[in-house]
Amino acid sequence: MSGPLHHAFIDESGTVAPFSGSHFLVIALLGTTRPRQIELHVKRALKKYGTSLASGEMKADASREVVVKQLLQAIAQETVTIIAVVVDKQNIARPPNDPEEMYREAVTRAVRHAVARWPRIDVCLDKRYTAKHLRYELEKVIREGIAGLHQEVVIIRQEDSIACKELQATDYVAWAFFQKYERGDNRHQSSAVVEMKKRLTLGPDFSLSRRISAPARSTLRVAKVTRLYDAARLIL
What we know:
Layout: E1 6-14, E2 24-32, H1 35-49, H2 65-76, E3 81-88, H3 100-117, E4 120-126, H4 132-145, E5 153-159, H5 165-183, E6 195-201, E7 207-213, H6 218-235
Parallel strand pairs: 1-4, 4-5
Antiparallel strand pairs: 1-2, 2-3, 6-7
Helix pairs in contact: 1-2, 1-5, 2-6, 3-4, 5-6
């Protein structure tokens, strides 16, 4: 019998340009079988605190400390799985001609780990590209990257985060990871969280640092997000 359909929401924090902007690029994937609950947390936060953005979208870097803390804490109460791919751009000696290749490869790594766990999955990415051919290229790279995995249903969508509250929630998770790695704040790492830290080769010219949370029961999943909540509280 097939398992439940999982939903995975993906957003990024940081810049892709190799020699400028941030030192790290973070791709965060928020996985759940109950996306409605994540949506409701964002709607409640929006109703309670509002947003400074004219679009009405909730963004972590435009939010007050209390909003970041409470939204991440709310997410921590749900049974979620987080996969984070962290690209250390300082260790890339010869970047690709097109920096977007790093973004596409990092997203593919996150999706590949998700599909390996959940062969029935609906993947929703923040709509990074307005050009149709770039959206096609992103999906093509992802499809090629998961081609060798067992798949039952793998849906890949690219949506505007203004209309997708779950993507807005994922923005807060990506932002929290970014603060940890960009600012080096490791004071509140939970001992309940198990991480795999490996070096992955992307090709002859550039490489990717991956930090993926290991599979865990719901108690560990809560601890993972709680750690992000603690980190976010401290760096604000």
